[in-house]
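Lecture notes, unit on protein representations.

Consider one protein chain, 223 amino acids long.
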Amino acid sequence: MNTAQLERAIDYRFKRPEHLLQALTHRSYGTPHNERLEFLGDSVLNCVIAGALYQRFAQVREGDLSRLRAGLVRQETLFRIAQQLDLGNCLRLGEGELKSGGFRRPSILADALEALFGAVFLDGGFAMAETVILRLYQPFLADIDLRRSSKDPKTTLQEYLQSRRLPLPRYELRITRGEAHAQEFEVECHVPQLGVITVGVGSSRRAAEQEAAKAAYEKVCAK
C-alpha cells in the first residue's frame, strides 16, 4: 500500500506530503520521526471524541463521559482502525523493527494512527482533522451501549462471573516487550470453569488485563 492509497482510505489529500511522511516514520527508521505528531494527534483525538460524546449524550454525567472517551481512544480501538486502513504496510521502520514484526505491533500502529491525526491537523486544520477522525470512528460511536460502557471490562467480567457463582478470572503476564520507556505487555485471562483463555496487549499491565478481560467477557457471553 502506498501513501496515495492511504490518502484515499482516509479521504484526505495532504497539501504538504512531508507531514504524512513524518507521521509514518517510526523512531527506529530515523528523523524526523512521528513522536511529536503522535503527541499532537493524541490531543486532537481526545478533543474530537470528547466533543462528539458531549453532543450525543446530553444527559450523561462527566464521569461516564470520561469512561466512554477512554474506551474510544485506547490502544485497542486505535489498533483496530489502523488495521482497517492497512497502516502497517505504509510505515517506515528500522531494520530491527521490521524483522521483529513491528508493522503488526499494536502499540506502533496505534501511535502511528495518532501521528496521522496530528499530521492532518497540521496540514488541514482542526475542522479537517475532526472530519477524518469522526469518519473513521463512526462505527465505534454508533456501537456505544451506555448499559455496558459505564464499567471497565475487568469489573464487568468479575460481576458477570459472581452473578453465576463462578470463581474470579485469573490474569497471567505472558510477555513484556520493548525498552523501559516504551514497554508493551501481553496478558492472559483465564476462566477455567468455562474453558476460556484470552489474550490482551497494552502499554501497561493494567491496560493489557483490561483488553484480555474484554475479550473474555465477549466469549463467556457467547456461550
